[in-house]
Specification:
Strand content: 5-15%
Number of strands: 8
Largest sheet: 4 strands, mixed
Helix content: 40-55%
Radius of gyration: 25 Å
Order of helices and strands: HHHEHEHEEHHHHHHHHHHEHHEEE
CATH topology of the largest domain: Hect, E3 ligase catalytic domain fold
Number of helices: 17
Distance between the termini: 44 Å
Structural class: alpha/beta
C-alpha cells in the first residue's frame, strides 16, 4: 500500500501494520528504519526544529507562510514523497491511490512532494495543485469506495457550514480520520486549500475546548431524525404522547434521564444536542488531532489562535469581488511589430470585453468557479492572471501546463 522498499527482516512486521493503526510491530519497524536513515546525509531529526520567528509576525497569513517555508526548508534535501494516480483507472481505484498514500505510518510530511498523473500530459506545479484540491474535495464529498456497503464513503456529514465527522465505527477502526488529518495538514504544508465548512463547535473541541463551552446549533446535528427529535424539546409547548416517547427513547439510548415535565427540559435539550454533535465522535476528533500533529499544522493552530479562522475557514469565506479579480488580470495587447497576431485589435478588445462584462456581473460562486478553472483551485496565485486570445473550440485553462523551471510563469486562460 505504501509503495516503499523495506529490508527482508522487517517486511513482515511492516505488512501487518501498513495502512492500519500503528501497533508494537510498526513502532519496532520505525525504530529500525530510523537507525538505517541515521547514516544517510541530510538534517538530523533532533535538529529539525523551526525557529520562533514566525510567532512574532503580526499578520497571521504571513506567519503561516513563514512557518511553512522554514519547515519545508529543513527537509528540502530529503527524498521526495511520490504521489501517483492513473487517470485511466476507475474512480474507486484513483481514490484508493490517495488513501494508500495517506495511510502510510511514520512519514515526515514536510519532505518534498512529487506528484505524478499517469495517462495525462500535465506537468509542473499544476499537478500538485490538482492532487491537493482533490484530497480536500474528497474529504467533503466522499470517496468512491465501498466501505460498509456504501457506494460513496463520506468522512464528514452535515449541511453546508456545519460539517462534523461521520459517526461510523468502521471508519474509526480503520483510522480514516487520522488519514483525514494528514490530508488537511499536508495540504497546508504545500500551500494547498484548507477544509472549509466545519462546524464551529467541532473546531472548538478539536482545538482543546470543552464540549460544554462549545456553541452547538441544531444545524450541527447531521442526522435529521435525531435533529427533529431534539427539536421537540425547544420551546415550552406541551409534547404529545408520541413525541414524548420519541424523546424518552433517545434519552435512554444515550444513558440520559427521561423528561420530567418541564423541569429538566432545557438541560436535556442541551445535553442531547452536545452528545449528538460531539459526544458520538470523540474518537474521530482524537484521530483528526493526531493526524494534524503529524503534519505540524497542529503547532500553528495552537500557538497562533488567530490562524484558526484561516486554516478552518467558513463555507464561502473565499469571496472574490470583481474589482479584485480584474486588477489581477494581464489583458492581451496588440503589437504591430509582431506578425504572429492572429486577430485584429477590434476582435481582441471584443473578446476581452465579454470576459470583463461577465466578471463584473458574476456572483461570488461564479467567480470562484472561474478562478478554479483558471488556476486549478479557488486560491488566487501570487502572480498575475494572463488572458490570451487564440483559435479553438472551447476556453482552456493552462494551469496544469506550467513550466516547473519557471515558477513565476503567469496563469493563462485562453479563449476564442
Amino acid at each position: 500500500m505504501c509503495m516503499d522498499i523495506f529490508p527482508c527482516h522487517i517486511i513482515e512486521a511492516h505488512a501487518a501494520s501498513c495502512g492500519e493503526s500503528a501497533g508494537n510491530e510498526a513502532i519496532e519497524c520505525s525504530t529500525v528504519m530510523e537507525e538505517e536513515q541515521a547514516v544517510m546525509p541530510g538534517p538530523s531529526r533532533s535538529s529539525a526544529a523551526v525557529t520562533d520567528d514566525w510567532l512574532t509576525i503580526q499578520d497571521p497569513t504571513k506567519a503561516m507562510s513563514q512557518f511553512r517555508d522554514s519547515l519545508l526548508h529543513i527537509y528540502e534535501k530529503e527524498s521526495a514523497l511520490v504521489l501517483s494516480m492513473d487517470t485511466r483507472e476507475t474512480p474507486a481505484e484513483q481514490d484508493m491511490a490517495l488513501l494508500s498514500f495517506y495511510k502510510r505510518p511514520n512519514v515526515e510530511w514536510a519532505r518534498p512532494l512529487h506528484c505524478r498523473l499517469e495517462g495525462d500530459v500535465a506537468i509542473g506545479k499544476g499537478v500538485t495543485r490538482f492532487f491537493l484540491s482533490t484530497c480536500i474535495e474528497k474529504l467533503k464529498s466522499g470517496f468512491c469506495i465501498n466501505f460498509a456497503n456504501t457506494d460513496v464513503t463520506r468522512l464528514f456529514d452535515g449541511e453546508t457550514g456545519h460539517l462534523v465527522p461521520s459517526a461510523s465505527h468502521f471508519l474509526v477502526e480503520s483510522d480514516m480520520f487520522v488519514m483525514a488529518g494528514r490530508m488537511m495538514g499536508h495540504s497546508f504544508l504545500h500551500g494547498g486549500p484548507c477544509l472549509s465548512g466545519l462546524s464551529p463547535a467541532l473546531a472548538h473541541v478539536l482545538l482543546g475546548g470543552g464540549p460544554e463551552t462549545a456553541t452547538v446549533a441544531l444545524e450541527d446535528c447531521p442526522d435529521l431524525d435525531i435533529r427533529e427529535t431534539i427539536r421537540l424539546l425547544q420551546g415550552e409547548s406541551k409534547l404529545s404522547e408520541e413525541e414524548a416517547k420519541r424523546v424518552q427513547d433517545l434519552a435512554y439510548a444515550w444513558d440520559l434521564p427521561c423528561l420530567s415535565n418541564n423541569n429538566n427540559r432545557r438541560w436535556l435539550f442541551e445535553k442531547m444536542l452536545i452528545h449528538a454533535v460531539i459526544g458520538r465522535v470523540t474518537r474521530q476528533i482524537k484521530q483528526l488531532r493526531r493526524g494534524l500533529k503529524e503534519t505540524q499544522m497542529w503547532t500553528v493552530l495552537t500557538k497562533r489562535p488567530d490562524t484558526v479562522a484561516l486554516l478552518f475557514p467558513k463555507e464561502g469565506a473565499v469571496d472574490y469581488s470583481p474589482e479584485v479579480l480584474l486588477k489581477r488580470i494581464t489583458w492581451p495587447h496588440h503589437d504591430e511589430e509582431d506578425d504572429d497576431n492572429d486577430f485584429s485589435v477590434d476582435t481582441m478588445c471584443h473578446v476581452s470585453g465579454y470576459l470583463r462584462q461577465f466578471i463584473e456581473n458574476a456572483s461570488p460562486n461564479e467567480l470562484g468557479d472561474l478562478v478554479k478553472f483558471w488556476t486549478g483551485w479557488e486560491i488566487l496565485p501570487r502572480t498575475n492572471l494572463s488572458l490570451e486570445v487564440v483559435k479553438g473550440s472551447f476556453p482552456t485553462g493552462l494551469h496544469l501546463l506550467r513550466d516547473p523551471a519557471n515558477p513565476r510563469a503567469l496563469q493563462r486562460l485562453c479563449i476564442f
